[in-house]
Fold these 2 entries.
Entry 1:
Amino acid sequence: MSSAATAGGFGTGPLSRAAALLHTLLTVEALLLVTAAPGLAGLLFLGPEPANLPLAACCLLPLGPALSAALYALHHRSRDLTDLHPARCYLRGWRLNAVPALKLWAPLLAWLTVIAFTLTHFAATGLPGWWAVLLGVIGVAALLWGAHGLVLTSLFAFRARDTARLAAYFLLRRGRATLAAASLLVLVGALTALLTEALPALLAAPLLLSLLRSSGSVIVETQEEFTV
């Protein structure tokens, strides 16, 4: 093989692509943990009492922009080992999406907090048992809506209300993407319940990459039907 062919192929082979992906995942994971650290550190000082749910929601506020920036960086990642800028992409994604992400993330956290607080005090409400099931279903639907909304707000510059409508539209329109997001939620829940709540945070980058790939149909339809 000539030196020119070697130079032309460097950074594009399977091993180079794998190395590029690993480098991107590690960089994005580190930056996500750093940018979300103030809130995550606050969670360590909160006990499991239901009265701490509002404080826990406040601690999770920085996580929304961090997740959005990570999705942006993973979507725009290079597969060429000679052209890697994951940190630059992450920081650009954070600057572009911090405020738009919070416009969806904060109401989602508030709504989930209300549901969780109600369920933890359900005996005192006097409501029939099927209400607890209904609230659980609404909470799961809200999380799935949030997954679609997070992908959309990370990759597109829509107004918050338009992103919210599109996320709701895709819940049923793209059932496979919604089911894939649900499977990721189940995985995160299992990892948290069976092992440790820190594990999903440490695996956030590969989990987000899986969300991004399973949302391919949502991204393509949004590009073709809702952007100029």
Entry 2:
Amino acid sequence: MIRYALQCEHEHGFEAWFSASADYDDQAARGLVECPLCGSRAVIKQIMSPAVAGARKREAGPDLATMQTLIQQAAREARSHVEQNFDYVGDAFAREARDIHEGRSEKREIYGEATPAEVRKLREDGVPCAPLPPDPAKAH
């Protein structure tokens, strides 16, 4: 496995793991690598120092399966919080988010559906929005 430090066009830094360097190149070329904070697919690799084993023994961290379970649990909890506490506005998300941002609609937390082009335009116009974590139960 190879760990890459990545950064999106909005300067959000994050890490991702790939089986081989060719896997990153292939996935990035197909637009499959995206920023977990804003969903941007304009992602580049950052300079990263190699992990070199030192003389001291490092504490063993959680294994990959445990990490995956923890990440899926966090995604479920975040999604559940949004679904329970935010108003679902369906495919009117872009319009409603813009109306709230510009003061034409009451301020409230919303979630819904938007096309990549709508999300890009919202971000360009300074309207805060972020992708909802996927439902791990429906990912398979």
